[in-house]
Amino acid sequence: MNIHENIQYESDKPNVVIIKKNDAVKYFAVGLGKNAVLQKHKTAFPATLIVLKGEINFKFEDRNYHLKTLDTFDIPVEEIHEVQGLQDENLFTVLQEL
Fold first, then answer.
1. 19 near 27, Cβ under 8 Å?
2. Beta-sheet pairing, 47-53 with 72-75
3. Cβ contacts of 29 within 8 Å, gap of 6 or more
4. Which one of 4, 17, 27, 58 has the fewest beta carbons within 10 angstroms of its own beta carbon?
C-alpha cells in the first residue's frame, strides 16, 4: 500500500488510513488539510506520533505543541487532546501498542 495514494487532505475533516492492525499494534496514518481538526479524544494505549509532512498543533487543555515534519511525539495515555493541521497538506502516523 502507498499511503500517499490513499490519503486525502480535506479542510473540514481528517482522513484516516489503517496501515497495520493486529492484537499487538494499531498503526495508522492521518491526513489533515489546513485548519482541519481531529476532534478531542484520548487513547487508552501508549502511542507514538510521527509527522511525515506539514505541521500540526497538538493541543491539550493546558498546553500546546507545534510539531513539524519528522518530529516525533509520545501521546500520553488517557489525556484528552485534539490535533489541528496548519499547512495545506499535513500527514502523520500513530503507532498504538495494544
1. yes
2. antiparallel
3. 3, 7, 16, 17, 19, 52, 91, 92, 93, 94
4. 4
Task: Give the tens place of pLDDT for each residue, 56-77.
Answer: 999 999 999 999 999 999 999 9
Length reported for the chain? 98
Cell 509527522 found at? 51
Exposed e or buried b per residue across 42-67, where buried means at least 16 C-beta atoms within 10 angstroms of its C-beta = ebeeebebbbbbbebebbeeeeeeeb
Can you say whether the dihedral through the CA atoms of 29, 17, 78, 37 is positive or negative?
Answer: positive
The model's pTM is 0.96
Question: 83: buried, middle or exposed (CB in 10 Å: 19+, 13-18, 0-12)?
Answer: buried
